[in-house]
Specification:
By secondary structure, the protein is mainly β. The protein has a single domain (about 5-85), classed as OB fold (Dihydrolipoamide Acetyltransferase, E2P), CATH 2.40.50.140. It has one helix at about 65-70, and strands at about 5-10, 15-20, 25-35, 35, 40, 50-60, 80-90, 95-110. It comes from Novosphingobium hassiacum.
Amino acid sequence: MNIVNLVGRLAKDPVARDRSDTRITELILVTERPVIRDGKVQKDPETGYPVKDAEFHKVTVFNGMGLPLRQHKAKGDQLAVTGRIHYSRWQDAEGNDRYGCEIIAENVEFL
């Protein structure tokens, strides 16, 4: 089973990349989780708030599902994304192998 559920904020505005018959919307979604050491949530000594670790996820949305994102969402807005992980491999101009990972969105909800 290859299912991913993420809730996070947009790191930047959605980016549109349209081809002849395919509309592609690219997102960078930031998720956060508390830093845990020795089984305890770490807290900032100055503020007392939990210290958080951020991860950035590339999300690709195809065709009509991406249009409302382009029109109504911007950096900082919160989204819930359900999709699948997709890995890719290619060679750059120098012939080096490159690898990538992205989430192919199957459902996106505005929060």
